[in-house]
Design brief:
0% strand; mainly alpha
Length: 80
């Protein structure tokens, strides 16, 4: 009677197969992300400079909003 292999001691041939499946999944993820970025650029309603300016203004507004809320959070009053 052969001893049963444990879950943590997979034979090297199986481990190589698992690694190749993982690389395939990562490759598919990267390919899908690249296709998504490309399609997004094709259907973007604004030009690059306008889009970057819009993103910069939104990030700035978000940063100001966080800065405005920071003193409220540091006082230690949590609605009590």
């Amino acid at each position: 009677m052969k001893p049963r292999p444990t879950a943590w001691a997979a034979p090297p041939t199986l481990r190589g197969r698992e690694d190749s499946h993982m690389l395939g999944k990562v490759g598919a993820l990267l390919l899908g992300g690249g296709i998504g970025v490309g399609v997004g650029m094709l259907f973007a309603p604004a030009g690059g400079a306008e889009t970057r300016a819009d993103i910069a203004s939104k990030v700035s507004a978000f940063g100001e909003n966080v800065s405005d809320r920071k003193p409220q959070a540091s006082t230690g009053t949590h609605g009590a």
